Amino acid sequence: MALLSYVVAYLGILTFGAVVASKCIGYLKKPVHLRWELYPVAHEDARRASYGGSYMEDSGWWLKKRRPSRRGGIKAVAVEFSTLHSTFRNNRPLWYRAYPFHLGLYLLTITMCLAVGVSVLASPGGLDGSAGRFVGRLGQTLALTAFLCILAGASGLLHRRLTVPDLKAFSTPEHFFNLGLFLGLSVLGLILWLAMPSFFGSLCLFLGALLTFGFISQGNALFDLFIIFLFALMAYVPATHMGHFFMKYFLWHDIRWDDQPARDNPETQRKISVALGRPVSWSGGHVEGGGARSWAEVVTGRPAMPQKREGATP
Amino acid sequence: MTRQPGLRDVCTREGRLVDVEADALIRLPVAFDAVGRESVSDEGRDGCSRILDDVQVLRIPRPATRQEEEELVRRFLDGMRKLFSPDDNWTFLSILETSMDYCAQCNSCAGACHLFEASGGNGMYRPNLRSEIFRRIYKRYIAKVPFAKWRYGDVELNWKTVVRLGEMAYRCNLCRRCAQVCPIGVDNGLIAREIRKLFSQEMGISPPELHDNGSMRQLGPDASARNNARSVQDRVEQICAEYSALTGYEFHAPWDVQGADILLAHSVLEIMYWPESIAAFAIIFQKAGLSWTLSSELAHHDATNFGTFYDDAQFARTALLHMQIAKRLGVGKMVLGECGHMSKALSVAADRLLPRELDIPRESCIPILRDIIFSGKIAFDPSRNDIPVTLHDPCNVVRLMGVNRPQREILHYLCPQFREMTPHGVENYCCGGGSGFALMNRDNIGAWRNNLSGRKKMAQICGAFAECLGPETKKLVCTPCSSCKVQISDMLEKGGVRARNSMRCAGIVELIVNAMADVNPGFIPWLRK
After folding, report:
1. Number of independent structural domains in chain B
2. Across residues A112-116, what is the average pLDDT?
3. Domain residues for B507?
4. CA distance to partner chain B, nearest, from residue A112 (Å)
5. Which one of B59, B104, B176 has the shortest CB-CB distance to A241?
6. pLDDT tens for residues A184-215?
7. CA distance A114 to B308
8. Do B391 and B411 touch, CB atoms closer than 8 A?
């Protein structure tokens, strides 16, 4: 069981990395899209970002130097990730459940990072000494809070999906399955936290062994099961709609806030040229693609007038 | 019929699916006369399918045989495949795919939709209903995700699903307020437009107002283009003469001036229905001493871009046509008049379509109007606009372009009793005429626009004038968009609000000229004291 937990952990990390990378690369390899921004755009200057203004509020904007505010973009993303501000504003009943859930996941991630830090930096003996004891208590507290938050959030979300008719009608089996997995993880984590002398200490030892290929058994089958559960979940989540935790970067930065004019960007102009050379195969009579003509050829010609088109006024 | 159609109902129910009862609609604070709806059968007219509700935007022939049903589904699936192809849909593929893959079904979008709210929470107007049906078909038939039926839930793909999905894409104004509130960034407005695209680009099915009488006439051979250039020029000259007499200020609209600094683009809607807007622009630009011109070629073809609403090929062709006209005139820039979608289409969406040589700068008219007003070149007397005025923000100009503050600076300066609607700016609600609906009236569409799609806006307007409703005080709704003006004026008129509450609608330029100190008072005659 202990060995299996290490195998699953390695596979989980590799799969997580591979899925995230393939999704990101897959997105980046997509053709350039038309501008489709939505205001407010966070990287506008602070004054304009506050009310949803854009550089197009200036007459002759193309003659002026644009200074997108990287700080504004980072700040908006930081606020959104840390507080789920958009849900707080627009769907408060959901926020009361989604926020603890997300907070729990953040805390669990921090706990894992702290455990990795301890296993790398601390002397053998781990959490001895006053500083070590402080970090140990901090890790224990973080882990407990994380599990409680995930438990509260996942049960709240599940309850909402099962009881609010509007949500229930649109919930898929995968929604329930995913929330069930997180619920299971938090329950298992809480049982371990209560049952083990130091859950965080065991986590440090496990992660240290994982990093050094030590394969030390923690001597606790439930802990091994927890590790298997945790890393299997880590591998699975990015492949589902919950992958929004990293794809949100593209959805916000590259779509919602993508206000860069082509005239300022030779790379975009090059991509547009490539895209216009792509073949068109739409069958609508007015498009006349046929798979042989390029977009450039189709859109620079006038459409032929059809004899009769469905949907036309008789 | 039902008020809360489920996902499976869309595929399985016989006959008309949804009924939107009049008494379920949100209440308005003023008496509002509902526009009568024509009673129709499920068969619709001319053998077309009317199986969603009592509105018929698309005219999809009802399949007569099993083979015809299967053929409809096959063509739909062919189109859907192309929507997810980097060749056929490079324009929006990345946005569409991410919207397919990452929706958490949290329903935040429904709370933001003016149609869902105005209908009293009718399930058909939930923005993610059509998206989720489309998503499930995509996962199962196009992406072929393993265990798709088990993971994402099942929908049956049959002719009823196809017909209803097509119609549902036209129960949306594409205002994208739903996308704005989505915590993830999923764009249900885009999905509705992509479905419209699929029907048009693959199946050749689209509303005649947008295609046959819209983009096809616009792009067709000269003989069938939308307008006769000479008659449009005559009309504009007549407008100039009438308003020169009214204002006591002699002005002209220059035509086809080679090398002018500015090419001013008006939609033909403005020229035909809002002559005061044409006159006001000419007065302001002449007074400010700008080098500007109108284009007879642009008037001939119309500066509207119908493709924006439903078809990428038609959109790109129209944008290129417009920019070629600007190029031939050798103008310094194109200023886009009071038309929201024209402004967005050319300023934003076409930005990544134009070859470098046609990338002539384009901008909304609002910033330049603001600059003129505060330049000191024209004297103003704001007391001429001393009535309650509120501003309707066109979605295209504000939420989708970020032109938000200049119009407010103008109105705060020129209208002493200016007040905002709630909410406003980027959080505004659509007027109800968005995405081409302002141009449609047939088959209960006019009734739908007036009774339902514009209802939330009407509630907002009444809210802005809450303390002065009734006939005693004149009130004005200002909006810098001709489609919004058509929609709001139509609602005020047909709903009886205009008569019972002394309320009218006008553009910003009319209010600007009405406040000019050195032209005769009463440019907006109705406002004259």
Report:
1. 3
2. 94
3. 380-527
4. 25
5. B104
6. 999 999 999 999 988 999 999 999 999 998 88
7. 52
8. yes
Separation in Å, CA of A91 to nearest CA in chain B: 6
Length of chain B equals 529
Question: Residues near B313 by Cβ (< 8 Å), separated by ≥ 6?
Answer: A280, A282, A284, A286, A287, A298, A299, A303, B201, B307
**pLDDT (tens digit per residue) in B155-165:** 899 999 999 99
A chain contacts of residue B200, beta-carbon cutoff 8 Å: 284
Span B479-502, average pLDDT = 95
Residue B478 covered by a domain = yes
Residue in B57, B82, B102, B151 to test binding to A, most A beta-carbons within 10 Å: B102
Note the ipTM here. 0.94
Collect contacts of A127-136 with beta carbons under 8 A, ≥24 apart. Answer: A127/A198, A127/A200, A127/A201, A127/A204, A136/A198, A136/A200, A136/A201
Domain assignment of residue B62, yes or no: yes
Rounded Cα gap, residues A12 and A208, in angstroms: 16
Single-letter amino acid, residue A48: R
Closest CA to B395 of B459, B343, B468: B343
Distance of alpha carbon B57 from alpha carbon B199, whole angstroms: 12
Hey, is the C-beta of B296 within 8 angstroms of any chain A C-beta? no
pLDDT digits (tens, 9 = 90+) for A73-106: 999 999 999 999 999 999 999 999 999 999 999 9
Contacts of A278 in chain B (CB under 8 A): 86-88, 90
Strands, sheet with B262-265, edge to edge from the N-terminal-most edge strand: B292-293, B262-265, B333-336, B362-364
**Cβ separation B187–A306 shorter than 8 A:** no
Domains of chain A: residue spans and CATH: 2-33+84-239 (1.20.950.20)
Q: What's at B354, amino acid-wise? A: L
**Which tokens sit at A95?**
């926020």
Structure tokens at B180: 């704005």
Do both B277 and B355 map to the same domain?
A: yes
The answer to the question of residue B1 being in a domain is no
Residue-wise pLDDT tens digits, B118-168: 999 999 999 999 999 999 999 999 999 998 988 888 889 999 999 999 999
Average pLDDT, stretch B229-236? 85
**For B254-297, how does the pLDDT look when each residue is reduced to its tens digit (9 = 90+)?**
999 999 999 999 988 888 889 999 999 999 999 999 999 999 99
Residue with tokens 């046929």: A290
A41 contacts on B by Cβ (under 8 Å): 402
- CA gap B136, B149 in Å, rounded: 8
Chain A CB contacts of B192 under 8 Å are none
* Contact present, B346 and B362 (Cβ < 8 Å): yes
Paired residues of B265 in beta bridges: B336
